[in-house]
Amino acid sequence: MSEIIAFAGSNSTKSINHQWVSFLSQQLVEPVNVIRLTDYQIPMYGIDYEKEIGFPKEVQRLYNDIKSAKAIILSVNEHNGAVSSYFKNVMDWLSRYDRIFLEDKPILLTSTSPGKLAAGKAREYAEIAVERYGGKLIASFGLPSFEDNFDSEQQKLRDETLLLGVKDTLSQFQQAITF
In this protein, which residues make up the domain named NADPH-dependent FMN reductase-like (predicted)? Predict the structure, then answer.
C-alpha cells in the first residue's frame, strides 16, 4: 500500500475543510498526499447514466487511488445539516462501482464549519457511511468555529484545548495505521 491520502468532501476552491485536512496532514510523521476531489471530473450520478455509459474513468481513477492508500483522512463539509450534494455524489459513484470501496481502510474522519457544531450532522452521516462502505473508523474529530479557532495565515490552532484534542486524535490514528 502506498501513502495516506487526505481530502475534503467540498468542491469549494476556498474550502475550510480542505484547509483543515491539509493542516492535519502536516501534523503526521508519515507522508500524506492531500488531494482535491475536484481534480476528478465526476458527473452527477444517475442510474440511466450508469446503464447507458457505464462508470466514468475518473470514478475508476479515484477508486484506484483510494484502494492503493494505506489510510484516509477525510474532512466532510456540511450544507443545511447534511453532507454536501457534491460529496454524496462522489460516494454514490464509488459505492456503485464497489459497494465496499473502503474495505478495511483505516479512516480518520473530521469536519469543521464556521459554526459551533463543527458540521457534526455531516460527520454523523459520514461515520455511518464509512462503516457501510467497509472502512474502519479509527477516530472522529470536529473543529468548531473555524475562523475563531484556526489561524489560516499561520496554519495553527488558536485554542490550546482543541490542540490537545487534535494531538490525541492524530495519535490514535497514527497508532492504528502503524503496522
Answer: 4-126
C-alpha distances in angstroms, 83 versus 1, 61, 144, 167?
29, 23, 16, 25
The answer to whether the predicted template modeling score (pTM) of the entire model surpasses 0.90 is yes
Distance CA 99, CA 103 (A): 9
Distance, CA of 62 to CA of 42 (rounded, Å)? 9
pLDDT > 90: percent of the chain: 97
Per-residue model confidence (pLDDT) at position 178 = 85
Give the pLDDT confidence of 140-167 residue by residue, as tens digits.
Answer: 999 999 999 999 999 999 999 999 999 9
List the alpha helices (DSSP H) in the chain: 16-26, 47-53, 57-68, 85-97, 120-132, 146-149, 160-177
Distance CA 26, CA 81 (A): 29
Name the nearest CA neighbour of 71 among 38, 20, 28, 113. 28
